[in-house]
Amino acid sequence: MRSEQRSLAEKELPPQGLCRIWPVAALLVGHRSTSGYAPSSRLAQAKFGATNVIVVMFMTTKPVDWGDAVKKRLLSTKGEPLVFAEWRRVMFLHYQVEPSVVRAQLPPSFGLELHQGRAIVSLVVLTMRRFRANPAAPFWAQLLAAVSEERFLNLRTYVRHDDEPGAFFFWSWLSRPWGLPLPIGPLGLTCDFARSEYHHEHENGGLWGVVRGRATCGRFAYCGHIEPRQSFGPCSAGSLAEFALERFSGYFWHRGAGRVFRAWHPPWLQAPIEVEVEDDSLVVRAFPWFADTRFVEAHYASGFDEVWIGRPHRLPAPALRLGAPNIIRVQSSSPPHIHPWQH
User: Rounded to 5 degrees, what angle do the CA atoms 19, 21, 24 make?
Assistant: First the structure.
């Protein structure tokens, strides 16, 4: 168990229905399924020799508003978005780690983005509510409306695929729907079901929660504080908050290929918080390299009434030459152009 603290200034469904709903819920947060991309508690982790690092330096004094470009890209694909949902009372805990540590966990087709020369991995505590399917979505997506609430704990880092920045999801712990005993990694997805309890009452200043894994899998427990009258604002330009929060593409690896899902929501309104991680054994036992990370800061956001969430799409096969360096440095007075993807 590691204990760290940092202060910052500033209705039941039939069984056949579950096989459709929960893989979709899992894909919404990103998952991988190859043997090299699973936690050590299940399979050995792969090591990739290729260097693939992106250093991003935006020369701007204003927060970047990705809204219009992101929305156009999402809507450029027929049938998108797949579902709408509320995102509520979200906590982001950010950790620094040497780039080589994270690079070894990623497929070589993804470029690792750095913030101030360090790789960032984040644990995101999130509650989704009121799933509503797009009227044009398939029938099975309509069944998501039966889910009143789903709680997530995600482990992710920050990458770029071609010209599209996003978050790469290593693993997710999902709350168990209706208390059902569901298997680890349903349909090969890299997720597990856990007992989660979140009490994010920013109105009263209290933030705490615990996620308990199966048997010997450990737990993740934290407590934090936020001023009851704390105001929430946009991420400052160039800040770690902007780097980590303003991501609208989610990458993962599934059935031997990279996948992406895209989302749209307004810019995050957030605030820095004080937080103490009391127990991270759930994460360390699944990913031993996480023990080498260093906690740096945390942010809290009340969330959104409506987030547009797209369906997962398979990425084109990479043109990367394995073993060759793939180092990209981006210096610009504006964010890189976002290209619509063809599927």
Answer: 105
DSSP 71: H
Q: Considering the domain boundaries, does residue 244 fall inside one?
A: yes
Give the closest residue to 325 by CA, choosing from 96, 95, 99.
99
The two structure tokens encoding residue 63: 């927060």
Position of tokens 């031993």? 288
Measured CA to CA in angstroms, residue 46 lies from 9, 36, 101 at distances of: 39, 4, 12
Rg (CA), the chain: 19
Question: DSSP states of 270-312 as a string?
Answer: EEE-EEEEEE-HHHHHH-GGGGG-EEEEEEEEEEEEEEEEPPP
Of residues 76 and 160, the one with the higher pLDDT is 160
User: Taking the mean position of all CA atoms in its chain, how far away is CA 208?
Assistant: 20
Asked whether residue 169 is domain-assigned, the answer is yes
pLDDT tens digit string along 274-323?
A: 999 999 999 999 999 999 999 999 999 999 999 999 988 899 876 544 44
- 3-state class of 69 per DSSP? helix
Give residue 228's pLDDT.
Answer: 92
Q: Which residues pair with 81 in a beta bridge?
A: none
Q: Cβ distance 219 to 212 under 8 Å? A: yes
Largest Cα separation within the chain, whole Å, is 54
188 within a domain of the structure (yes/no): no
* pLDDT of amino acid 141: 78
Alpha-carbon distance of 68 to 92, in angstroms, equals 24
What pTM was computed for the model? 0.77
Query: Region 174-182: what's the mean pLDDT?
Result: 71
Q: CB neighbours (10 Å) of residue 215? A: 6
Domain with 298 in it: 29-173+234-273+285-332
For residue 319, the domain's CATH number is 2.40.400
The number of distinct structural domains making up the chain is: 1
Both tokens of 250, joined, read 């989610």
Residue 142 or 118, more confident: 118
pLDDT, tens digit, for every residue of 14-68?
Answer: 333 334 444 444 444 443 333 344 454 433 333 344 455 655 544 444 555 556 7
The verdict on residue 337 lying in a domain is no
